[in-house]
Structures are given as structure tokens and as C-alpha cells.
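Q: Could you fold this chain for me?
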Amino acid sequence: MTLKVYLSGEIHTDWRDQIISGSADLDVVFSSAVTDHDASDDCGVRILGQEPDKFWHDNKGAKLNAIRTRKGIADADVVVVRFGEKYKQWNAAFDAGYAAALGKSLIVLHGGDHQHALKEVDAAALAVAQAPSQVVEILRYVETGVLPG
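A: Sure. Below is the predicted structure, expressed as C-alpha cells.
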């Protein structure tokens, strides 16, 4: 069974790489948002033209990024949303809500410090993990039915 997994959330650590490399022996296809911060921020104005007002600059970029995000989440069997320690990822919370509204299998990934702030997001998830390795083991179990040894 090929699993299509969309990876959403913070872009400041290598959590995506850990999940992808840890799943190398599984039948999993990964997709993700654009993780180049500058490209993500500036795609709208670089493609559609400059904006003197920062609101419209960000608005153009958010809309172009939403095309990729909506498609990735809609096509996914499983959506993994990572909330990092350093920044507040409002977009990640939005992605988690969007995935839940579509009835996608949602795995939330964050440390214990965010447990209270993310309690509603956690309640919508089918699993809440604290480490990328746990996400790998969830994917392995879903695909093979085998528990970690």
C-alpha cells in the first residue's frame, strides 16, 4: 500500500529529512510546502509583480503557496504537521485544521512545551508524536502492521 504523506510545519530544523530517511524502506511518497523561506515569502511579488504595501506582498505569496498546500493536503493519505519550538507557526495550525476538515489522517508533532497551546489541534489528530522517529514508526505500523522491535 503506497502512502501519500504531506509534511507541513516549521522549516527551521531537519525533521522532514529525519522522517523521509527513516522511511526509506517503506512505500511512502512525501510532499511538502516550499521550505525555502525566502522563496515562500517572495513568490507572489517575484511572479506577479512588486507591492509597496507589505500586507499585499504577503497576501500574494500566501495565495500562491496555498495552491501547493491545498493540493498536497487534498492528495495526501496522511498529513503530518510539525510545530517547532522557536516560532509560532500559524500556517501549520491552519494546515492541521484544513486537513481535519477534509477528514485526513492527521499526525501532529511537537514537544511537551506546546501541549496546552495545541490541545485543540491535538484533539483533532489521530496521533500526537514528540519525535520524528515516532512518526516513522507510525507510518511503518500503518503500512506493515508491524510494531517496533
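A (continued): The CA atoms of residues 41 and 113 lie 28 Å apart.
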